[in-house]
User: What shape does this take?
Amino acid sequence: MAQLTADIGGRPGIDCRGFCEYCYFKHVKDTAPFGCRYCPPFQKGCDYCSRSVREYYSGFRPLRDIADDVLVALQSVTGDVTRVTISGGGDPSCYPQFRDLVELLSSIEAPLHIGYTSGKGFDEPEIADFLIDHGLSEVSFTIFSSSPRLRKRYMHDPTPEVSLKVLETLCGSIDVYGAAVVLPGINDGERLIETCQWLEDRGAKGLILMRFANSTGQGLILGNAPVIRNQRVQTTEEFAEMVTDLNSRFSLKISGTPLWDPENGSPFAILDEPDLLEKLPRIERKATLLTGKVAAPFLKRLVDACGGGCSVVPVNKDIACLITIDDLKALDLAKVGEVVIIPGRAFVHDREAADVLSRDGVEREVIRGPDTLTADAETSMGMTKPEVLALELESCADLVRTINRYGI
Assistant: This one.
């Protein structure tokens, strides 16, 4: 079995009928390469940490190029194709040859999935029936609000009523996961309750809520903070409490990122499973684990449950995979041991990280940990709790093995 991806390319803010007010890619500057896990040992910078992180494309890719890529991928597949996903830097609903693309991919006779759309490119309600008839089985659809007025104002949707009608039709026939960035004072409170009710009444499977980020520490690493001046931002605790409350009010599954999935208990659902914690390897050596502020308390509980002896040091960044070299430069090295394990997806170059963390004269070894330890809401939304726990069991065991292999 295999899954295929049709990459349509496209540029955020350009190939999507303009930036939404809250878009994380607004005001993005030309930043120097960050460094990452894909960089060569003696070179800081690669395609991923210089271009892909900004979702930078020259524009939508020609349909012929997409078709050629899909054909090449099909020729290397053994077994059945279980899903074909349409994704890219631009919005699929705005792709100029969207219908032709869907017809082409439907010929593979595998379920189609649209990884993300705002629906701003849908100007005719009947596009929903076209998608259903051509095998669309799942879509992640940014709703922001069920109010056409708010969609028009904050998403700059030229036809908000049509977009919502398309979403309504899709909800009645396929798996639809709504998504909304929460702007306090704008689409939260009673307005958010109305949006949840709207989605539930129409049969959506779930709603992913995303805490608005407006500063570097909250995750804007592309030189583009703030996105909206003077916009209030929820703390992670406030946001998690909101998600918990809304999930208790509706049968619709509601989860949030960076916190949390009330149904599956993630992130780090394994912490509430003593039998699974006992299956993890025991920590036999010591290391310092660098992480983000959100994951730090969970990670501390995890290492203590596996025998302890390791320090967990959060940097001034909420999300661990968005750690950059500036976060390491700001660390108090008195809290950092001789072996340092950083998140696998951190945006730092290994050699530079070692140099920065050794600037006090203590030579420190820097090791990358697993790419992920748990499932965030965007991942866990379509997963069962056993699937989440299986992912965490494997990933956390990998972390302990890394500690035992490289620790002192």
